[in-house]
Write a structure and sequence with these properties.
Blueprint: H1 7-26, H2 28-31, H3 35-44, H4 47-77, H5 84-111, H6 116-143, H7 147-177
Length: about 180
């Protein structure tokens, strides 16, 4: 357990643990809300503001979980990170993207009878492109590949986060009406 064979296995295990932690942390974000509380919130704020605030809150929670997991990984596995800047970028934008996507999918699952299985079934295929880009970016940061090579992955990751947020802002008002 002191030394994993390579950076790719380290990164894959890290994001698998982060993914399962995010499903557990974010899955209950909408299902724990009562019908009366949702009606009250519906009368107070617009749906765009509500989903934006929920996504920011979930992003902060998932970012804290990811940082804790990264620190534990650093202690247990002694992985040497060559480029901390790109590593932190992949950690922040990967966690944010997962939180945005799972916030929207949690809404869909709560409207479908608070079914957590639906969240997992919808979440994994939707999160796959984000996870592929994030793991590549993080592995390249560990290997110390130049920033000029990494820029395309950073822009793709930013684009995926932007598209996810735009979808959440467009689709959530229809889901929230009930």
């Amino acid at each position: 357990m002191k030394r994993l064979p390579g950076a790719s296995i380290w990164v894959a295990l890290f994001w698998i643990i982060t993914l399962f932690a995010s499903f557990n942390a974010i899955a209950k974000s909408f299902t724990s809300e009562s019908r009366g509380r949702m009606l009250y919130l519906y009368s107070l704020v617009s749906p765009e503001v509500f989903i934006g605030a929920k996504a920011i809150y979930q992003s902060v929670i998932l970012l804290v979980l990811s940082i804790v997991a990264m620190l534990v990984y650093q202690v247990l596995f002694e992985m040497v990170i060559q480029d901390y800047f790109v590593f932190v970028i992949s950690l922040v934008f990967g966690s944010t993207g997962i939180a945005i996507i799972l916030s929207l999918l949690s809404t869909i699952a709560s409207k479908a009878g608070k079914n957590f299985t639906l969240l997992a079934i919808l979440g994994l295929p939707v999160l796959l492109p984000l996870l592929m880009v994030t793991t590549t970016l993080m592995k390249n940061a560990i290997d110390g590949i130049e920033l000029s090579v990494q820029l395309k992955y950073i822009f793709v990751l930013l684009g995926l986060n932007g598209v996810s947020l735009a979808l959440a802002l467009v689709l959530f008002p229809y889901l929230w009406r009930e």
